[in-house]
Protein backbone atom coordinates (compact mmCIF):
# COMPACT_ATOMS: atom_id res chain seq x y z
CA UNK A 1 0.00 0.00 0.00
CA UNK A 2 1.52 3.34 -0.96
CA UNK A 3 0.50 6.65 0.56
CA UNK A 4 -0.57 8.10 -2.79
CA UNK A 5 -3.26 5.49 -3.19
CA UNK A 6 -6.75 6.65 -2.19
CA UNK A 7 -7.96 4.47 0.67
CA UNK A 8 -11.29 3.52 -0.88
CA UNK A 9 -10.18 2.15 -4.28
CA UNK A 10 -11.78 -1.06 -5.54
CA UNK A 11 -9.46 -3.80 -6.79
CA UNK A 12 -11.82 -5.05 -9.50
CA UNK A 13 -14.23 -3.19 -11.78
CA UNK A 14 -17.35 -4.87 -13.09
CA UNK A 15 -19.64 -3.87 -15.93
CA UNK A 16 -22.96 -2.28 -15.00
CA UNK A 17 -25.89 -3.62 -16.98
CA UNK A 18 -29.62 -3.16 -16.37
CA UNK A 19 -29.04 -1.69 -12.89
CA UNK A 20 -26.63 -4.40 -11.70
CA UNK A 21 -22.86 -4.86 -11.52
CA UNK A 22 -21.87 -7.94 -13.53
CA UNK A 23 -18.71 -9.70 -14.70
CA UNK A 24 -17.96 -10.56 -18.31
CA UNK A 25 -19.85 -13.57 -19.63
CA UNK A 26 -16.54 -15.31 -20.40
CA UNK A 27 -14.97 -14.12 -17.12
CA UNK A 28 -12.22 -12.21 -18.98
CA UNK A 29 -10.41 -9.30 -17.35
CA UNK A 30 -7.61 -6.87 -18.13
CA UNK A 31 -5.13 -5.09 -15.86
CA UNK A 32 -4.99 -1.37 -15.16
CA UNK A 33 -1.66 0.27 -14.30
CA UNK A 34 -0.64 2.91 -11.78
CA UNK A 35 1.25 5.37 -14.05
CA UNK A 36 3.74 6.27 -11.29
CA UNK A 37 5.02 2.68 -11.01
CA UNK A 38 3.47 0.95 -14.03
CA UNK A 39 2.36 -1.84 -11.71
CA UNK A 40 -1.13 -3.27 -12.11
CA UNK A 41 -3.35 -2.08 -9.27
CA UNK A 42 -6.72 -3.36 -10.38
CA UNK A 43 -8.46 -5.54 -12.91
CA UNK A 44 -11.52 -4.71 -14.97
CA UNK A 45 -13.95 -6.90 -16.86
CA UNK A 46 -12.90 -7.25 -20.51
CA UNK A 47 -16.27 -6.93 -22.24
CA UNK A 48 -16.86 -8.82 -25.47
CA UNK A 49 -19.70 -8.79 -28.00
CA UNK A 50 -21.93 -10.86 -25.70
CA UNK A 51 -21.55 -8.36 -22.83
CA UNK A 52 -22.21 -5.44 -25.15
CA UNK A 53 -25.28 -7.23 -26.48
CA UNK A 54 -26.63 -7.61 -22.94
CA UNK A 55 -25.99 -3.94 -22.21
CA UNK A 56 -27.65 -2.82 -25.44
CA UNK A 57 -30.60 -5.11 -24.65
CA UNK A 58 -31.03 -3.46 -21.25
CA UNK A 59 -30.75 0.01 -22.74
CA UNK A 60 -33.18 -0.89 -25.50
CA UNK A 61 -35.80 -2.17 -23.00
CA UNK A 62 -35.38 0.97 -20.89
CA UNK A 63 -35.92 3.02 -24.02
CA UNK A 64 -38.96 1.21 -25.39
CA UNK A 65 -40.68 0.25 -22.12
CA UNK A 66 -39.28 2.57 -19.45
CA UNK A 67 -40.28 6.07 -18.36
CA UNK A 68 -37.05 7.91 -19.29
CA UNK A 69 -37.65 8.97 -22.91
CA UNK A 70 -41.18 10.20 -22.21
CA UNK A 71 -40.54 12.08 -18.97
CA UNK A 72 -41.37 15.77 -19.01
CA UNK A 73 -38.25 17.89 -19.27
CA UNK A 74 -38.55 19.28 -15.73
CA UNK A 75 -38.59 15.78 -14.26
CA UNK A 76 -35.49 14.71 -16.17
CA UNK A 77 -33.80 18.01 -15.35
CA UNK A 78 -34.43 17.48 -11.63
CA UNK A 79 -32.60 14.14 -11.85
CA UNK A 80 -29.75 15.67 -13.88
CA UNK A 81 -29.34 18.37 -11.22
CA UNK A 82 -29.15 15.69 -8.53
CA UNK A 83 -26.38 14.03 -10.55
CA UNK A 84 -24.55 17.37 -10.73
CA UNK A 85 -24.92 17.81 -6.95
CA UNK A 86 -23.56 14.31 -6.31
CA UNK A 87 -20.57 14.88 -8.60
CA UNK A 88 -19.82 18.28 -7.03
CA UNK A 89 -20.15 16.85 -3.51
CA UNK A 90 -17.44 14.26 -4.16
CA UNK A 91 -15.14 16.35 -6.35
CA UNK A 92 -12.14 15.79 -4.05
CA UNK A 93 -12.59 12.03 -4.06
CA UNK A 94 -13.15 12.00 -7.80
CA UNK A 95 -10.03 14.06 -8.40
CA UNK A 96 -7.98 11.76 -6.16
CA UNK A 97 -9.17 8.68 -8.08
CA UNK A 98 -8.65 10.31 -11.45
CA UNK A 99 -5.15 11.45 -10.53
CA UNK A 100 -4.17 8.00 -9.32
CA UNK A 101 -5.45 6.35 -12.50
CA UNK A 102 -4.37 8.88 -15.15
CA UNK A 103 -1.35 10.71 -13.73
CA UNK A 104 -3.09 14.08 -14.15
CA UNK A 105 -1.97 16.68 -11.60
CA UNK A 106 -4.47 16.74 -8.74
CA UNK A 107 -5.34 20.46 -9.01
CA UNK A 108 -6.21 19.99 -12.69
CA UNK A 109 -8.18 16.80 -12.02
CA UNK A 110 -10.22 18.75 -9.47
CA UNK A 111 -11.09 21.37 -12.10
CA UNK A 112 -12.22 18.58 -14.43
CA UNK A 113 -14.47 17.06 -11.73
CA UNK A 114 -16.15 20.42 -11.22
CA UNK A 115 -16.61 20.81 -14.96
CA UNK A 116 -18.29 17.39 -15.08
CA UNK A 117 -20.90 18.60 -12.56
CA UNK A 118 -21.40 21.76 -14.59
CA UNK A 119 -22.09 19.72 -17.74
CA UNK A 120 -25.09 18.07 -16.07
CA UNK A 121 -26.38 21.37 -14.66
CA UNK A 122 -26.06 23.02 -18.05
CA UNK A 123 -28.08 20.39 -19.94
CA UNK A 124 -30.70 20.31 -17.17
CA UNK A 125 -31.22 24.04 -17.72
CA UNK A 126 -31.19 23.69 -21.48
CA UNK A 127 -33.96 21.10 -21.77
CA UNK A 128 -36.24 23.04 -19.45
CA UNK A 129 -35.75 26.25 -21.44
CA UNK A 130 -35.88 24.58 -24.84
CA UNK A 131 -38.53 25.59 -27.34
CA UNK A 132 -39.26 24.06 -30.73
CA UNK A 133 -39.91 25.80 -34.02
CA UNK A 134 -43.34 26.11 -35.59
CA UNK A 135 -44.07 27.51 -39.05
CA UNK A 136 -47.53 28.85 -39.74
CA UNK A 137 -49.32 29.47 -43.02
CA UNK A 138 -52.41 31.29 -41.70
CA UNK A 139 -55.65 29.55 -42.47
CA UNK A 140 -53.92 26.76 -44.36
CA UNK A 141 -51.31 24.88 -42.46
CA UNK A 142 -49.52 24.59 -39.18
CA UNK A 143 -46.09 22.94 -39.24
CA UNK A 144 -44.18 22.17 -36.08
CA UNK A 145 -41.13 20.30 -34.86
CA UNK A 146 -41.68 17.36 -32.58
CA UNK A 147 -38.38 16.45 -30.93
CA UNK A 148 -37.78 12.91 -29.74
CA UNK A 149 -34.76 10.96 -28.51
CA UNK A 150 -33.06 8.74 -31.10
CA UNK A 151 -32.71 5.58 -28.99
CA UNK A 152 -29.73 3.77 -27.48
CA UNK A 153 -26.63 5.95 -27.73
CA UNK A 154 -23.19 4.30 -27.79
CA UNK A 155 -20.62 6.49 -26.02
CA UNK A 156 -16.91 5.76 -26.50
CA UNK A 157 -14.42 7.89 -24.61
CA UNK A 158 -10.63 8.39 -24.36
CA UNK A 159 -8.27 8.32 -21.38
CA UNK A 160 -7.35 11.98 -21.09
CA UNK A 161 -9.72 13.59 -18.53
CA UNK A 162 -11.92 10.45 -18.60
CA UNK A 163 -14.68 11.37 -16.15
CA UNK A 164 -15.17 14.87 -17.59
CA UNK A 165 -15.30 13.61 -21.17
CA UNK A 166 -17.79 10.91 -20.16
CA UNK A 167 -19.98 13.61 -18.56
CA UNK A 168 -19.78 15.58 -21.75
CA UNK A 169 -21.53 12.77 -23.61
CA UNK A 170 -23.68 11.35 -20.80
CA UNK A 171 -25.28 14.68 -19.87
CA UNK A 172 -26.71 15.63 -23.29
CA UNK A 173 -27.57 12.02 -24.22
CA UNK A 174 -29.57 11.53 -21.02
CA UNK A 175 -31.02 15.06 -21.18
CA UNK A 176 -32.33 14.33 -24.68
CA UNK A 177 -34.06 11.17 -23.38
CA UNK A 178 -31.74 8.57 -24.86
CA UNK A 179 -30.60 5.53 -22.94
CA UNK A 180 -26.88 4.78 -23.13
CA UNK A 181 -24.08 2.26 -23.17
CA UNK A 182 -20.75 3.80 -22.14
CA UNK A 183 -17.42 2.18 -23.10
CA UNK A 184 -14.67 4.02 -21.20
CA UNK A 185 -11.00 3.94 -22.26
CA UNK A 186 -9.19 0.80 -21.13
CA UNK A 187 -6.15 2.72 -19.81
CA UNK A 188 -8.35 4.61 -17.32
CA UNK A 189 -11.60 2.87 -16.36
CA UNK A 190 -11.46 3.73 -12.63
CA UNK A 191 -13.50 6.93 -12.27
CA UNK A 192 -16.30 5.64 -14.55
CA UNK A 193 -17.04 3.08 -11.84
CA UNK A 194 -18.48 5.94 -9.77
CA UNK A 195 -21.30 6.66 -12.24
CA UNK A 196 -23.64 3.74 -11.35
CA UNK A 197 -24.04 4.83 -7.73
CA UNK A 198 -24.34 8.50 -8.67
CA UNK A 199 -27.07 7.74 -11.21
CA UNK A 200 -28.97 5.29 -9.01
CA UNK A 201 -29.08 7.73 -6.07
CA UNK A 202 -30.25 10.54 -8.34
CA UNK A 203 -33.18 8.41 -9.53
CA UNK A 204 -32.08 7.35 -13.03
CA UNK A 205 -34.20 4.23 -13.78
CA UNK A 206 -32.40 0.89 -14.20
CA UNK A 207 -31.26 0.21 -17.75
CA UNK A 208 -31.01 3.88 -18.74
CA UNK A 209 -27.26 3.92 -18.00
CA UNK A 210 -25.11 0.90 -18.84
CA UNK A 211 -21.36 0.56 -18.68
CA UNK A 212 -19.18 -2.02 -20.41
CA UNK A 213 -15.44 -1.96 -19.78
CA UNK A 214 -13.08 -3.45 -22.28
CA UNK A 215 -10.58 -3.11 -25.07
CA UNK A 216 -11.45 -0.79 -27.97
CA UNK A 217 -11.15 -3.38 -30.72
CA UNK A 218 -13.39 -5.75 -28.74
CA UNK A 219 -16.02 -4.00 -26.59
CA UNK A 220 -15.81 -0.70 -28.52
CA UNK A 221 -16.10 -2.42 -31.87
CA UNK A 222 -19.05 -4.52 -30.71
CA UNK A 223 -20.89 -1.36 -29.66
CA UNK A 224 -20.21 0.31 -33.02
CA UNK A 225 -21.36 -2.80 -34.87
CA UNK A 226 -24.52 -3.43 -32.83
CA UNK A 227 -27.67 -3.04 -34.94
CA UNK A 228 -29.75 -1.65 -32.04
CA UNK A 229 -27.39 1.28 -31.45
CA UNK A 230 -28.38 3.96 -33.99
CA UNK A 231 -25.81 6.54 -32.95
CA UNK A 232 -22.23 6.64 -31.71
CA UNK A 233 -20.56 9.58 -30.03
CA UNK A 234 -16.82 8.99 -30.13
CA UNK A 235 -13.85 10.94 -28.80
CA UNK A 236 -10.38 9.66 -29.55
CA UNK A 237 -7.71 9.43 -32.19
CA UNK A 238 -8.42 10.34 -35.81
CA UNK A 239 -7.28 6.89 -37.00
CA UNK A 240 -9.78 5.19 -34.65
CA UNK A 241 -12.44 7.61 -35.90
CA UNK A 242 -11.77 6.43 -39.45
CA UNK A 243 -12.14 2.78 -38.42
CA UNK A 244 -15.42 3.51 -36.65
CA UNK A 245 -16.70 5.55 -39.59
CA UNK A 246 -16.11 2.60 -41.94
CA UNK A 247 -17.57 0.08 -39.50
CA UNK A 248 -20.74 2.13 -38.99
CA UNK A 249 -21.25 2.94 -42.67
CA UNK A 250 -23.28 -0.16 -43.66
CA UNK A 251 -25.80 0.70 -40.93
CA UNK A 252 -25.82 4.45 -41.72
CA UNK A 253 -25.42 5.31 -38.05
CA UNK A 254 -25.43 8.83 -36.69
CA UNK A 255 -21.84 9.71 -35.80
CA UNK A 256 -20.32 12.49 -33.78
CA UNK A 257 -16.53 12.43 -33.79
CA UNK A 258 -14.19 14.53 -31.67
CA UNK A 259 -10.74 13.58 -32.88
CA UNK A 260 -7.09 14.57 -32.70
CA UNK A 261 -5.46 17.96 -33.01
CA UNK A 262 -2.22 19.83 -33.66
CA UNK A 263 -3.39 23.32 -32.93
CA UNK A 264 -1.42 26.48 -33.73
CA UNK A 265 -0.88 29.40 -31.37
CA UNK A 266 0.09 32.51 -33.38
CA UNK A 267 1.90 35.28 -31.52
CA UNK A 268 2.31 38.65 -33.27
CA UNK A 269 4.88 41.20 -32.21
CA UNK A 270 2.14 43.60 -31.07
CA UNK A 271 0.63 41.06 -28.64
CA UNK A 272 0.56 41.33 -24.88
CA UNK A 273 3.59 39.07 -24.59
CA UNK A 274 3.22 38.25 -20.90
CA UNK A 275 -0.35 37.07 -21.46
CA UNK A 276 0.68 35.15 -24.60
CA UNK A 277 3.54 33.50 -22.74
CA UNK A 278 1.33 32.37 -19.84
CA UNK A 279 -1.34 31.05 -22.17
CA UNK A 280 0.94 29.24 -24.61
CA UNK A 281 2.77 27.54 -21.74
CA UNK A 282 -0.43 26.43 -20.01
CA UNK A 283 -2.00 25.61 -23.38
CA UNK A 284 0.41 22.79 -24.12
CA UNK A 285 1.74 21.68 -20.73
CA UNK A 286 -1.50 21.53 -18.73
CA UNK A 287 -3.10 18.07 -18.49
CA UNK A 288 0.44 16.74 -19.13
CA UNK A 289 0.09 17.86 -22.75
CA UNK A 290 -2.52 15.12 -23.17
CA UNK A 291 -5.02 17.66 -24.34
CA UNK A 292 -6.89 17.56 -27.66
CA UNK A 293 -6.91 21.35 -27.95
CA UNK A 294 -3.25 21.77 -26.93
CA UNK A 295 -1.57 24.68 -28.71
CA UNK A 296 1.37 22.46 -29.62
CA UNK A 297 2.71 24.52 -32.55
CA UNK A 298 3.66 28.06 -31.58
CA UNK A 299 4.19 30.44 -34.50
CA UNK A 300 5.99 33.64 -33.54
CA UNK A 301 6.48 36.83 -35.58
CA UNK A 302 10.16 37.17 -36.47
CA UNK A 303 10.98 40.49 -34.66
CA UNK A 304 10.13 38.96 -31.26
CA UNK A 305 11.06 35.35 -32.08
CA UNK A 306 14.42 35.14 -30.26
CA UNK A 307 13.16 36.99 -27.21
CA UNK A 308 10.00 34.84 -27.06
CA UNK A 309 11.94 31.57 -27.49
CA UNK A 310 14.30 32.49 -24.65
CA UNK A 311 11.51 33.50 -22.28
CA UNK A 312 9.45 30.43 -23.21
CA UNK A 313 12.32 28.00 -22.69
CA UNK A 314 13.20 29.53 -19.34
CA UNK A 315 9.65 29.15 -18.03
CA UNK A 316 9.24 25.64 -19.51
CA UNK A 317 12.40 24.45 -17.81
CA UNK A 318 11.03 25.63 -14.44
CA UNK A 319 7.72 23.75 -14.70
CA UNK A 320 7.32 21.50 -11.68
CA UNK A 321 7.18 17.86 -12.76
CA UNK A 322 6.42 15.28 -10.12
CA UNK A 323 3.97 13.19 -8.16
CA UNK A 324 0.54 13.94 -9.62
CA UNK A 325 -1.08 13.82 -6.18
CA UNK A 326 1.10 16.70 -4.94
CA UNK A 327 -0.85 20.01 -5.28
CA UNK A 328 2.39 21.77 -6.30
CA UNK A 329 2.84 19.53 -9.35
CA UNK A 330 2.26 21.19 -12.72
CA UNK A 331 3.06 18.21 -14.99
CA UNK A 332 2.48 14.67 -13.69
CA UNK A 333 2.98 11.27 -15.32
CA UNK A 334 1.75 10.30 -18.76
CA UNK A 335 -1.05 7.80 -18.69
CA UNK A 336 0.66 4.57 -19.77
CA UNK A 337 4.12 3.22 -20.60
CA UNK A 338 3.12 2.65 -24.26
CA UNK A 339 2.03 6.26 -24.62
CA UNK A 340 5.13 7.46 -22.76
CA UNK A 341 7.36 5.50 -25.16
CA UNK A 342 5.56 7.09 -28.11
CA UNK A 343 6.04 10.62 -26.72
CA UNK A 344 9.72 9.93 -25.95
CA UNK A 345 10.23 8.67 -29.51
CA UNK A 346 8.98 12.04 -30.78
CA UNK A 347 11.38 13.78 -28.39
CA UNK A 348 14.27 11.81 -29.92
CA UNK A 349 13.02 12.62 -33.43
CA UNK A 350 12.76 16.29 -32.45
CA UNK A 351 16.51 16.43 -31.79
CA UNK A 352 16.98 15.91 -35.53
CA UNK A 353 14.11 18.20 -36.57
CA UNK A 354 14.58 21.22 -34.33
CA UNK A 355 16.82 23.03 -31.84
CA UNK A 356 16.23 21.69 -28.31
CA UNK A 357 15.63 24.56 -25.88
CA UNK A 358 14.23 22.74 -22.83
CA UNK A 359 13.56 19.22 -21.59
CA UNK A 360 14.47 16.48 -24.02
CA UNK A 361 13.64 13.26 -22.19
CA UNK A 362 13.00 12.07 -18.67
CA UNK A 363 13.36 14.72 -15.97
CA UNK A 364 16.41 14.05 -13.78
CA UNK A 365 15.66 12.09 -10.61
CA UNK A 366 12.35 10.65 -11.88
CA UNK A 367 13.52 7.29 -13.17
CA UNK A 368 10.36 5.31 -12.51
CA UNK A 369 6.91 5.98 -13.99
CA UNK A 370 5.85 7.73 -17.18
CA UNK A 371 7.58 11.08 -16.71
CA UNK A 372 8.57 13.31 -19.62
CA UNK A 373 10.16 16.71 -19.05
CA UNK A 374 8.37 19.67 -20.69
CA UNK A 375 10.21 19.79 -24.00
CA UNK A 376 10.63 22.76 -26.34
CA UNK A 377 12.02 22.63 -29.88
CA UNK A 378 12.72 25.85 -31.82
CA UNK A 379 13.26 26.51 -35.56
CA UNK A 380 10.96 23.65 -36.52
CA UNK A 381 10.10 23.52 -40.22
CA UNK A 382 6.53 22.85 -41.39
CA UNK A 383 7.62 19.58 -43.03
CA UNK A 384 8.92 18.17 -39.73
CA UNK A 385 6.97 15.28 -38.25
CA UNK A 386 7.02 16.96 -34.83
CA UNK A 387 5.23 19.89 -36.53
CA UNK A 388 2.59 17.85 -38.37
CA UNK A 389 1.84 14.84 -36.14
CA UNK A 390 -0.10 14.81 -32.88
CA UNK A 391 2.29 13.92 -30.04
CA UNK A 392 -0.23 14.29 -27.19
CA UNK A 393 2.40 14.94 -24.55
CA UNK A 394 4.42 17.83 -23.06
CA UNK A 395 6.23 18.67 -26.30
CA UNK A 396 5.95 21.93 -28.24
CA UNK A 397 7.44 23.39 -31.42
CA UNK A 398 8.36 27.03 -32.08
CA UNK A 399 8.51 28.36 -35.65
CA UNK A 400 9.10 31.95 -36.85
CA UNK A 401 6.96 33.73 -39.46
CA UNK A 402 7.36 37.01 -41.35
CA UNK A 403 3.93 38.02 -42.65
CA UNK A 404 0.30 37.43 -41.83
CA UNK A 405 0.01 35.28 -44.96
CA UNK A 406 2.95 33.22 -43.74
CA UNK A 407 1.31 32.72 -40.38
CA UNK A 408 -1.92 31.57 -42.02
CA UNK A 409 -0.10 29.18 -44.34
CA UNK A 410 1.80 27.61 -41.43
CA UNK A 411 -1.31 27.42 -39.26
CA UNK A 412 -3.24 25.55 -41.96
CA UNK A 413 -0.34 23.32 -43.02
CA UNK A 414 -1.41 20.21 -41.09
CA UNK A 415 -4.20 17.69 -41.56
CA UNK A 416 -5.87 18.63 -38.26
CA UNK A 417 -8.20 21.56 -37.58
CA UNK A 418 -9.41 21.50 -33.98
CA UNK A 419 -8.39 24.75 -32.24
CA UNK A 420 -6.28 27.86 -32.87
CA UNK A 421 -5.04 30.62 -30.59
CA UNK A 422 -4.23 34.16 -31.77
CA UNK A 423 -2.34 36.83 -29.88
CA UNK A 424 -2.35 40.36 -31.37
CA UNK A 425 -3.49 43.81 -30.32
CA UNK A 426 -4.74 44.51 -33.86
CA UNK A 427 -8.31 43.25 -33.59
CA UNK A 428 -9.12 43.78 -37.25
CA UNK A 429 -6.26 41.45 -38.12
CA UNK A 430 -7.27 39.08 -35.33
CA UNK A 431 -10.86 38.64 -36.51
CA UNK A 432 -9.93 38.34 -40.19
CA UNK A 433 -7.26 35.76 -39.47
CA UNK A 434 -9.60 33.84 -37.15
CA UNK A 435 -12.11 33.53 -39.98
CA UNK A 436 -9.49 32.16 -42.39
CA UNK A 437 -7.92 29.61 -40.07
CA UNK A 438 -9.02 26.03 -40.64
CA UNK A 439 -10.06 25.29 -37.06
CA UNK A 440 -13.35 24.50 -35.37
CA UNK A 441 -12.58 26.83 -32.46
CA UNK A 442 -10.45 29.97 -32.21
CA UNK A 443 -9.41 31.79 -29.06
CA UNK A 444 -8.36 35.39 -29.77
CA UNK A 445 -6.29 36.98 -27.00
CA UNK A 446 -7.92 34.41 -24.79
CA UNK A 447 -6.91 31.45 -22.83
CA UNK A 448 -8.77 28.18 -23.59
CA UNK A 449 -11.97 28.82 -21.68
CA UNK A 450 -15.14 27.52 -23.24
CA UNK A 451 -18.67 28.75 -22.76
CA UNK A 452 -20.83 25.60 -22.72
CA UNK A 453 -23.32 27.16 -25.13
CA UNK A 454 -20.78 27.43 -27.95
CA UNK A 455 -20.12 24.82 -30.66
CA UNK A 456 -17.35 22.32 -29.97
CA UNK A 457 -15.74 20.31 -32.73
CA UNK A 458 -13.03 20.21 -35.31
CA UNK A 459 -12.67 20.40 -39.07
CA UNK A 460 -10.49 18.30 -41.40
CA UNK A 461 -9.07 15.27 -39.53
CA UNK A 462 -10.14 16.69 -36.15
CA UNK A 463 -13.75 15.71 -36.29
CA UNK A 464 -17.10 15.23 -37.77
CA UNK A 465 -20.14 17.20 -36.61
CA UNK A 466 -20.29 19.71 -33.84
CA UNK A 467 -21.47 19.25 -30.31
CA UNK A 468 -21.82 21.89 -27.59
CA UNK A 469 -24.98 23.52 -26.25
CA UNK A 470 -28.14 22.82 -28.23
CA UNK A 471 -26.09 21.11 -30.96
CA UNK A 472 -25.44 18.22 -28.57
CA UNK A 473 -29.17 17.83 -27.97
CA UNK A 474 -29.73 17.89 -31.74
CA UNK A 475 -27.31 15.00 -32.16
CA UNK A 476 -29.21 12.82 -29.68
CA UNK A 477 -32.68 13.82 -31.04
CA UNK A 478 -34.79 13.35 -34.10
CA UNK A 479 -36.53 16.55 -35.07
CA UNK A 480 -39.68 15.27 -36.65
CA UNK A 481 -41.71 17.69 -38.79
CA UNK A 482 -45.47 17.46 -38.32
CA UNK A 483 -47.61 19.18 -40.97
CA UNK A 484 -51.29 19.87 -40.16
CA UNK A 485 -53.85 21.21 -42.57
CA UNK A 486 -56.11 23.97 -41.18
CA UNK A 487 -58.56 23.88 -44.08
CA UNK A 488 -59.40 21.83 -47.14
CA UNK A 489 -56.50 19.60 -48.16
CA UNK A 490 -56.57 20.74 -51.86
CA UNK A 491 -54.97 17.50 -53.07
CA UNK A 492 -54.85 17.02 -56.85
CA UNK A 493 -57.50 14.31 -57.40
CA UNK A 494 -55.76 11.42 -59.19
CA UNK A 495 -58.16 8.85 -60.63
CA UNK A 496 -61.15 11.09 -60.11
CA UNK A 497 -61.80 11.97 -63.80
CA UNK A 498 -64.83 10.28 -65.26
P1 LIG B 1 -8.20 6.04 -28.99
O1 LIG B 1 -8.79 6.37 -30.32
O2 LIG B 1 -7.09 5.09 -28.91
O3 LIG B 1 -9.33 5.44 -28.02
C1 LIG B 1 -10.50 6.15 -27.70
C2 LIG B 1 -11.60 5.16 -27.32
O4 LIG B 1 -11.92 4.38 -28.46
C3 LIG B 1 -11.19 4.16 -26.24
O5 LIG B 1 -12.30 3.91 -25.40
C4 LIG B 1 -10.84 2.93 -27.03
O6 LIG B 1 -11.00 1.74 -26.29
C5 LIG B 1 -11.86 3.01 -28.15
N1 LIG B 1 -11.50 2.28 -29.37
C6 LIG B 1 -10.26 2.01 -29.85
N2 LIG B 1 -10.35 1.30 -31.00
C7 LIG B 1 -11.67 1.13 -31.25
C8 LIG B 1 -12.39 0.49 -32.29
N3 LIG B 1 -11.78 -0.11 -33.31
N4 LIG B 1 -13.74 0.53 -32.24
C9 LIG B 1 -14.38 1.14 -31.24
N5 LIG B 1 -13.74 1.77 -30.20
C10 LIG B 1 -12.40 1.76 -30.22
O7 LIG B 1 -7.84 7.45 -28.35
P2 LIG B 1 -7.06 7.69 -26.97
O8 LIG B 1 -5.63 7.37 -27.20
O9 LIG B 1 -7.81 7.03 -25.87
O10 LIG B 1 -7.25 9.27 -26.78
C11 LIG B 1 -6.37 10.22 -27.26
C12 LIG B 1 -6.91 10.85 -28.53
O11 LIG B 1 -8.19 11.44 -28.29
C13 LIG B 1 -6.05 11.97 -29.06
O12 LIG B 1 -5.93 11.86 -30.45
C14 LIG B 1 -6.85 13.22 -28.70
O13 LIG B 1 -6.60 14.35 -29.51
C15 LIG B 1 -8.24 12.73 -28.85
N6 LIG B 1 -9.17 13.59 -28.12
C16 LIG B 1 -9.98 14.42 -28.83
C17 LIG B 1 -10.86 15.28 -28.17
C18 LIG B 1 -11.76 16.20 -28.94
O14 LIG B 1 -12.70 16.69 -28.35
N7 LIG B 1 -11.52 16.45 -30.21
C19 LIG B 1 -10.90 15.28 -26.78
C20 LIG B 1 -10.05 14.42 -26.08
C21 LIG B 1 -9.19 13.56 -26.77
UniProtKB/TrEMBL annotation:
Active-site residues, record numbering mapped to chain: 258
Domain Aldehyde dehydrogenase: 26-482
Superkingdom of the source species: Bacteria
PROSITE patterns for the chain: ALDEHYDE_DEHYDR_CYS (PS00070), ALDEHYDE_DEHYDR_GLU (PS00687)
Gene3D superfamilies, alphabetized: Aldehyde Dehydrogenase, Chain A, domain 1, Aldehyde Dehydrogenase, Chain A, domain 2
GO biological process: 4-hydroxyphenylacetate catabolic process
EC number(s) given by UniProt: 1.2.1.60
Molecular function GO terms recorded: 5-carboxymethyl-2-hydroxymuconic-semialdehyde dehydrogenase activity
Keywords assigned: NAD, Oxidoreductase
Similarity-based family: Belongs to the aldehyde dehydrogenase family.
PANTHER family: 2-AMINOMUCONIC SEMIALDEHYDE DEHYDROGENASE
Protein name: 5-carboxymethyl-2-hydroxymuconic-semialdehyde dehydrogenase
